[in-house]
Amino acid sequence: MSKPNVVFIMTDQLRADCLGYAGHPDVKTPYLDTLAARGVVFDHAYSACPSCIAARAALHTGMEQSHHGRVGYEDNIPWNYEHTMAGELSKAGYYTQCVGKMHVHPLRNYLGFHNVELHDGYLHCARYGSVPYRESQFIADDYFHWLKQELGTNADVTDTGLDCNGWVARPWMHDEKYHPTNWVTDRSLDFLRRRDPRKPFFLMASYLRPHPPFDAPQYYFDLYSSRKLRAPFVGSWETDEYLKANGRIFDSKTGPSDPELIRQAQIGYYACITHLDHQIGRLIMALIEQEVYDNTVFIFTADHGEELCDHHMFRKSRPYEGSCHIPLFITAGKNVLPDIKSGSSCHSIAELRDIMPTLLDIAGAEIPSSVDGESLLPLTEHPDLTQRTWLHGEHSYGEFSNHWIVTEKDKYIWHSQSGREQYFDLASDPHELNDLISGQEHQDRIAELRSCLIESLKGRPEGFTDDVRLIPGRPYPPTLPSAVLP
User: Fold this and answer.
1) What's the CATH code of the domain at 309?
2) Where in the numbering of this chain does the Sulfatase N-terminal domain appear (predicted)?
3) Which of 32, 126, 232, 367 could form a disulfide with 137 if both were Cys (CB 3.0 to 4.6 A apart)?
4) Between the CA of residue 482 and those of 62, 77, 398, 486, what are the distances in Å?
């Protein structure tokens, strides 16, 4: 049997619950719902280091964060990994193409892909001043280059006045066909047109949205602007200290303090998601029309979530569900993966590091010994099985720096600067409204999860533990020595 084609749909900053198939009461995603219904949904998938660079390091290398060395957000650190997802698939006979976001360094580092058509969105480090390798987004980013060709040399995504990390929302100012979400689909369709039909292909359609700016076309804003939307979740343990201090700052780590601006952020975020869904629908239809859908495996996920004003916070990097819980499903055409249990859910803990070994398993390729992740392919046949019972997550994030252990039913959090601990019973409290860290009935379980974290942190250069207890206040840089390779 010939190797299946693979379409890997990657999104940015899409939280797990903001999809129709996940039961969200407001967000509409009919095409993704269709794909999910035909495959296996991994409803306990997480991003162990939930921000763009660190999450993508896990994705592209299959390594856990202490091995790939990126435990926070830091630009301009070269990516020099021996084994990568695309590199190994290329060795296995696939033609490998990425369209959209890579967020690596240097910008045109292909990480083993045969070709990359790049759009990383607005990256501050590559937009002003000099950068290593003398790269600039104005030159290196294919979408920005194309947009200037189409609309003139002064055309730029910043014409909306929106920032790439802010909660301000407004509709896209140009025709929809010029939107970066449409561009990723357009270039993916062009790849399908010009591919060699004799070779299996791996297409990574890497969409930037719904990462800010929240600038979907007007049609998608109109879908949500008159709806009554579910309010953000705010835990009884949270205070409004940071909201009072920063709730008027558009790019702060908190959400806005103005309820109307919260609503506008939700409208903009949901609009970007439905716009994304419809563009994925275009891609699906093209695969059907070109008669390759039935021979294709689909994987869908995101690099991390978006807090979207839950617990008064915005963006990602924190240990709560809106930030670190991500969507993930695997779907296959009728001629491939014949034993997949379509229409089922798997509750085993999954992580981005599992994507690379899953793809190599699908391709029948050898999985390098450097890979820490586990193939999810067996779970598509037996979704009732459990491969990973707990996961260690973390993020270097200043005073919000954190480590956490999550299982199918609960979560333990340690704030590494202050030493504060939290415990949530996710089975009964999926939105983390009640912190049970002080409850006597949970102390044995908390001690068990704390011991898992101590075990995970043994030998780390930061000195978070003496192998017996956790030690707060240790220096916690976003990059470990293991990330700086020759």
Assistant:
1) 3.40.720.10
2) 4-365
3) 126
4) 14, 11, 21, 10
CA distances from 434 to 234, 255, 324, 409, 437 (A): 10, 20, 18, 14, 9
**Does any domain span residue 117?**
yes
pLDDT at residue 133 in the model = 52
Asked if the structure places residue 456 within a domain, the reply is: no
Whole-angstrom distance, CA of residue 295 vs CA of residue 283 = 15
CA distance 184 to 207: 6
pTM equals 0.97
**Token match 């916070």: residue?**
313
- Amino acid 486: pLDDT: 57
Q: What percentage of residues in the chain have a pLDDT greater than 70? A: 98
The two tokens of residue 171 are 């509709």
Distance CA 396, CA 402 (A): 7
pLDDT band at residue 138 under the 50/70/90 scheme: confident
Q: Are 27 and 270 in contact (CB under 8 A)?
A: yes
Taking only the tens place, the pLDDT of each residue in 392-445 is 999 999 999 999 999 999 999 999 999 999 999 999 999 999 999 998 999 999
Kindly state whether residue 155 falls inside one of the protein's structural domains.
yes
Among all residues, which ones are annotated catalytic?
52, 103
Q: How many domains does the chain have?
A: 1
Helices 180-194, 259-289: axis angle to 10 degrees equals 10
3-state secondary structure of 405: strand
Which range has the worst mean pLDDT, 45-49, 381-385, 482-486?
482-486
Q: Which residue has the tokens 């280091």?
A: 49
CA distances from 112 to 85, 89, 91, 123 (A): 8, 8, 9, 22
Reduce the DSSP state of residue 15 to 3 states and report it.
coil
β 39-42/350-351 pair status? unpaired
